[in-house]
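Morning, I've got a small favour to ask if you have a moment. You're getting the sequence in one-letter code plus the fold written as tokens. Thanks so much in advance, here it is:

===
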Amino acid sequence: DRAANGKRMAILDISGAIIEGKLRVNIKYAHTMFNRQTIKALCTDYQASLTGLIEHCKGPGAGGYTPSDFAEAGLDQDDLDDILDDLDE
């Protein structure tokens, strides 16, 4: 995206969306600030990080709740763990 005067609003813009069930990531960058190889390396690292995150989330130990799942309750992780332990008993 560009401002009304035609100037790029950010030197690096990463956006993503789920389209037809697939994550599509679009990276726009200022060609005068970055060379193509730097952006290609960024893309490779970004994809590797996403793949690692997906693999972690698919693993047997992944899952559970975090305080952000219950933001309005004002819990920290220890409080939440105590509540969940009580529910498992």
Remarks:
- The chain has a mean pLDDT of 89.
- Strands lie at 12-19, 22-29.
- The chain has two helices and two strands.
